[in-house]
């Protein structure tokens, strides 16, 4: 999917934006311009003359866009701030306010606040919360974007481009200069490189964009230019798994064919998946590698690395999970596995009861297979929740409400004992077996991993009681 990267408040790096992009896209905070008595439109006309450019000014009442070839505003987009009613955001995504012609020409609304007929369906999300504490919110934005693919959902004010890329948002803006001025920079895979890591930047990224590590270390302008080129490249190729270093090799010589990259950097598109080992050199995976990108010791050598994602290297355990659930997001896979386990656990409970009732008292092979399936899913779930378990024996403990899934002892119990323990734990909390729901099983498996299993189950029980279902 093609994403739009916009460059925020670029008064001190607009030349780099113009040099590194095929279409110039800039965003300003309204207050930033007012303090400097600058017009976004006049600034673009003066410094981007002869180029295709777009400029958005975000203010409290909305986001106004100006564009090359047009005089005055061409759009007034709605904004939604974190903390506002979710239903308002969903309604903005569902329908384009510019389709309401009465609203577009409402005299009581100031002209600069009114949507303009024919403007694209764009919604700007502002006042963004911290990424680490609010991952669920950004995944919610990604889900909205997926539900309304024709809407351009744009994050305003982020400092984490990987958050926009990995959640599938169609647009976001970032202040590159403020990051590169602190000696950091970005790679096309979403990784943020710190000043003491320049020598670890994969050589093929440097050659692709025409830089050396020494140049980047010594010049903030070049770091800005390099980062913009990387972001533009990622905006077109982030979802592609391709062994970049193998593109354009001539014969047995391990070098790039320069003709591969003669197109403008911003327009370069990978030719689908390129076969070959995505990991450079002869590096060998360590215990726990090839599971989560952020904890893998091979991340700087791997072309398939994506910040915050699970491994997609062929043959890795998460690769099949990613294909099954259509996502490399750990939380999406955890949620999918939890749902699957809840269903399988319910089936297993009935199968175990049926096996006990059999006259011959023999072991049903189908039950054994189901037990192994559930145990395998529990093991994978535990590894995703706690990456430290990857590569070793996984122990998952369900014990007296202790938040220990993924942190201690399923390995000491048989798969059958594990599933019995799931229902025993729920029953110990005063829930009758006939009242146990799939949501409760899921809440136990995932909630306890985060240390709030009891609250998760109690919340579901209260809800069920309020609905008269228990």
Q: How is the main sheet built?
A: 9 strands, mixed
Number of domains: 3
Compute the number of helices. 17
Helix-and-strand structural type: alpha/beta
Give helix % range. Answer: 25-40%
Rg, rounded, reads 26 Å
Distance between the termini: 46 Å
Mean pLDDT figure:
77
Beta-strand content estimate: 5-15%
Shape: flat
Structure description:
The chain has 470 residues and is α/β, with parallel strands linked by helices. The protein folds into three domains: 4-174, no CATH class; 277-324, no CATH class; 330-466, no CATH class. The chain has 17 helices and eleven strands. The chain has helices at 14-20, 30-36, 40-47, 86-94, 101-104, 135-147, 161-166, 176-180, 203-209, 213-218, 220-237, 317-325, 330-357, 365-385, 415-428, 438-447, 453-466, and strands at residues 4-8, 24-29, 53-58, 63-67, 75-77, 79-81, 122-126, 152-158, 171-174, 185-186, 192-193. It has a nine-stranded mixed sheet with strand order 5-4-3-2-1-9-8-7-6. Strand 1 (4-8), helix 1 (14-20) and strand 2 form a beta-alpha-beta unit. Helix 1 (14-20) packs across helix 11 (220-237), helix 13 (330-357) crosses helix 16 (438-447) and helix 14 crosses helix 15. The chain is flat, with a radius of gyration of 26 Å. The two termini are 46 Å apart.
